[in-house]
Write a structure and sequence with these properties.
Layout lengths: L2 E5 L7 H13 L6 H13 L6 E7 L2 E9 L12 E7 L8 H15 L4 E6 L3 H6 L3 E8 L2 E9 L3
Antiparallel strand pairs: 1-2, 2-3, 3-4, 5-7, 6-7
Helix pairs in contact: 1-2
């Protein structure tokens, strides 16, 4: 199956899809409506700067996953930047290596900007990220759950 990675800047028609994924997977029940997430996603896609930037994996021209480079992603850690954020692969196509492709695309974009270190936090995918070169630097409580804070030092 042929695949391609595009950005929502290049393909703003994908914003409704990425916004729905972001809302359903990460924002639902946290006080933000789908409309608010869509507006933020549209603003990010249209923004002139390098962040936020969302990449979308297309398989046979159908969107199946996304990942973002964001300046900030974790309110209690404003000292850390930038972040790999919002990694999502549609449930029906998981376990095919698509998350690794998306992460690699964000890492490459960050490296092209001269970023030395990327950050992420996760509750459920620590093993996935460790398997592709990320390392856990601490575990911390957040919103009544325990998360892993991970980093990836990018090649110069």
């Amino acid at each position: 199956m042929p695949h391609a990675i595009v950005t929502t800047t290049e393909r703003p028609d994908l914003v409704p899809v990425t916004a729905r994924w972001r809302w359903e997977a990460f924002a639902q029940g946290q006080g933000r409506s789908l409309a608010e997430v869509t507006a933020a996603e549209s603003e990010g896609a249209a923004g002139p700067g390098p962040m936020p930037r969302t990449v979308v994996l297309l398989v046979d021209d159908e969107p199946v996953g996304m990942a973002s480079l964001a300046a900030h992603d974790l309110d209690p850690r404003p000292d850390l930047t930038p972040w790999l954020a919002g990694v999502f692969v549609a449930p029906r196509v998981r376990r095919r290596g698509y998350a690794a492709l998306l992460v690699a695309a964000v890492e490459a974009h960050a490296a092209s900007l001269g970023v030395a270190t990327l950050w992420l936090y996760t509750r459920t995918a620590e093993g996935l990220y460790a398997g592709i070169g990320w390392r856990t630097v601490e575990r911390f409580p957040y919103r009544d759950r325990t998360y892993a804070l991970m980093r990836r030092d990018l090649p110069a």
